[in-house]
From TrEMBL:
Residues 1-23 form the signal peptide. The keyword Nucleotide-binding does not apply. Keywords: Signal. This is C4-dicarboxylate ABC transporter substrate-binding protein. The keyword Protein transport does not apply. Pfam families: DctP. Coiled coil: none annotated. PANTHER family: DICARBOXYLATE-BINDING PERIPLASMIC PROTEIN, PTHR33376.
Amino acid sequence: MKTFARNTLALGISLALVSAANAADFADMDPVTLRLAHVVNEQDGFHIAATKFEELVEERTDGKVNIEIYPNASLGDERTLLEGMQIGTVDMGLITNGPVANFVEEMAVFELPFLFPSPEAAYGVLDGPIGQELLDKLSDVNLKGLAYAERGFRNLTNSERAVNSPEDLDGLRIRVMENPVYTDTFRELGANAIPMAWTEALTAMQQGTIDGQENPVNVIHSFKLDETQNYMTLSRHTYAPAIFVMGMPVWNQLPEQAQTVLKEAAQEAAEHERQVNADMEADQLAALREAGMEINETPDMEAFQAAVAPVYEKYGEQFGDYLPRIQEALK
């Protein structure tokens, strides 16, 4: 016990020294405020990650870099935010990978259905050389990728019927992200896939113009989708990263020491969000069940995986060597 206490004390002292050193680096820097936007609410994992990022950056720059968080799509949907970052009207955001892939096509390799068998497998690829290489490609489109947070494993919900196999999806109108891999995945599964922004999807579910959607458990819970969706299938069909991303116009104006803090803080905030998501999922599922949602935890995964084989045939070569490299890394 004494050893543990000594180690904890030593760690605390070393972290304090690092903080002090970082703060000293910013003595001569003019204060700057960065607006960080996302499209979900304050109960969501994105906001948890953004808040942690804000705390780390302000502490390590001695308040010289101030982060202002804009949740709830208050500065626009995800495509609008990315376009704003490119021209410098938005500073930074936490953006789902799907919309980012519309700017760097190879990023969509992560969206391929049933690619990652577990969160840990995804983290190994994202935090390793392949993930970093793809983050760096964002600079080609005037964006700066900092780190991968997560949207998580996506699951299907709908208002019409229980879904256990692809046949059960036949004709259901399912909202998907505005990304061709998602659209084609759900068309192969037999659904009527309807790409639309998340803010529009919420209204469409309330009005009954769509039957369902697909998102991680934390989103389904934080947006109280049990109020419009009666059924959930834990299909875990896609692992969706999310990206801490900045506009290059803003990034290039920052001193190097501030850039270093932002990159390190983004990685730590991302890892914090991943852990919180994992810790909260069981409680969120229990709450959704209690609210009346019927949850299928054991759908026919083999049937789902077989149905999406054409998606790999269509897109595999489109991502260059990224798909085989990821598959090799996962072995």
